[in-house]
Specification:
Shape: elongated
Structural class: alpha/beta
Order of helices and strands: HHHEHEHEHEHEHEHHEHEEEH
Number of strands: 10
Distance between the termini: 56 Å
Number of helices: 12
Helix content: 40-55%
Mean pLDDT: 86
Low-confidence stretches: none
Length: about 325
């Protein structure tokens, strides 16, 4: 039985005992004493405070026997109520304190993680997708229901509180984070968090949600790396559903499939990478890691779509690949 239910039963039994005791005195004295006096006598008997008899129990055998029984059984009920209440307070507070301390320690140990501000219709699915992509994610959200839901997602850490509060961003490890996504419904809040995040971490990648397209220049000037409009993306999605439904279904199934964790991702060719100076054919992306190369972003920012197998990879390029997340991670480590 849960502690809350035990407490409910204990209180109900206590109230019932007080009413029965009051009614017992009322009947014993045949209604000559008021019900309030009977209730008062019951309470001081149960609590053993001993303020004195108000009903003239001394010399009345029936009242004396009834009082002894009332004290004997009533004290047990009171002790049960106190122990249940104490257990509920201690367990609830202690569990909450231990959870918070454990979560704080885990977040303090993170580095190179991602922060999601806001766990609404945009933020929570975003956080889940980042976790699915094997990223360490901290969700900052003030809604307790969303925080409880986040506990069910393995690998998703959380900071309960308002993301516009600088202390909560610091608690989420903003100084050590690789990137932060800001998904609050208010553009003004998103603008404020963008400026704060840029000041706290000048090198972080900041992706900001935007509703009013006229605010995009301000968000970019405030420090956003990129600005995303759900309305604009929704319009493009609707157009794709109309013109190329099969391609949309393919991407949706890729994201939701339970047969694996197939994703489109990127691999950077660093100066010490074994990919530098090799052709795509000799890179081993297909043979060793079962990755499909979709394109290459050159050092000047231009994209090479469907590069030929003779295309030579250079340091500073970024490869756009499709494959299983684990294979992508293995390729990053090996190459």
């Amino acid at each position: 039985m849960g502690i809350r239910r035990r407490l409910f039963y204990a209180v109900a039994i206590l109230i019932g005992t007080m009413l029965m005791g009051s009614m017992g005195y009322f009947l014993i004295f045949e209604g000559h004493s008021s019900f309030l006096d009977c209730l008062y006598m019951t309470v001081i008997s149960l609590t053993t405070v001993g303020y004195g008899e108000v009903l003239g129990i001394t010399g009345h055998p029936g009242a004396q026997i009834f009082t002894m029984l009332l004290i004997t059984f009533g004290m047990g009920i009171i002790l049960y109520c106190i122990s249940t209440l104490t257990a509920m307070l201690i367990e609830g507070e202690l569990t909450g304190m231990l959870r918070r301390r454990t979560m704080e320690n885990k977040i303090n140990a993170l580095s190179g993680h991602y922060i999601v501000c806001g766990g609404g219709e945009t933020g929570f699915p975003l956080a889940v997708e980042l976790v699915t992509s094997k990223a360490s994610v901290v969700l900052v959200e003030k809604d307790n229901a969303v925080i409880e839901q986040s506990r069910l997602i393995k690998g998703l850490y959380h900071v309960p509180g308002d993301a516009t509060d600088d202390e909560n961003l610091i608690a989420a490890g903003i100084e050590r984070a690789t990137g932060i996504t800001i998904c609050l419904p208010s553009d003004n809040d998103n603008l404020y968090i963008t400026m704060t995040a840029r000041m706290l971490n000048p090198g972080a990648r900041i992706i900001t949600r935007m509703t009013n397209s006229r605010l995009e220049p301000k968000l970019l000037k405030a420090g956003a790396t990129s600005v995303v409009s759900p309305n604009g993306i929704g319009a493009l999605r609707m157009a794709s559903e109309m013109i190329r439904p099969a391609a949309v279904d393919f991407l949706d199934n890729m994201l939701r499939s339970e047969r694996g964790e197939l994703r489109i991702n990127q691999i950077a060719v660093n100066g010490n990478s074994t990919l530098a100076g090799k052709t795509i054919m000799k890179s081993g992306l297909r043979d060793r890691f079962n990755l499909l190369l979709l394109g290459v972003r050159r050092k000047d920012g231009e994209f090479e779509f469907r590069p030929p197998s003779s295309f030579v990879l250079e340091a500073g390029m970024i490869l756009i690949v499709m494959g299983d997340i684990d294979n992508i991670d293995r390729a990053r480590e090996a190459l």
